[in-house]
Amino acid sequence: MNLANLRPKSSVLDKAINKGKSEVSLSIFALLFSEIVQYSQKNCNSVADLSDKLHKLGMDVGSRLLDLYVFREKNSKRETKLINMLLFIKTTLWKTLFGKEIDKLEHANDDEKTYYIIETDAVINKYISVPKDKGSLNPSIFVAGIIESFLTLSGFPCKVTAHYHKGTTYMCKFEDYVISRDKQLD
Question: Closest by alpha carbon to 84, among 151, 1, 164?
Fold first, then answer.
């Protein structure tokens, strides 16, 4: 009798969840994202509708990313300071999503509630060509949804929009109480 036949074979379900390949092929990502944009264009009457759909899809992805991060990183601490959370997004989250850090993180001079996340060469815009009739569409609104969901569900409610400025700029406008709470923690 062969003992190897008696031992149950391991399946995918038996493997640890945090193991696996951490990189996705850029061409597969570009294909998948272009299909998401094309799918979202169906039943849209305007560029604003399409932007809203992409933003909502990004928010769904952001909430799942936060769940996955919390599940995988059992020893991590919950960030309570806004700047620490933004630095976490700048480094850890962006490396997870795109394999590199964000180029710049800036605080607005005229508004203490506004921060800018600046990416000079956004991967998400690289392989999407926006038609002339949808000229004001910025596909990075999808990533803005990811950032907004991640921040809001982490206790830093905000609105995040994507703009073409110095590459792609994500403008994060936080609620008043987030800023006042942050000042109290100093």
Answer: 151
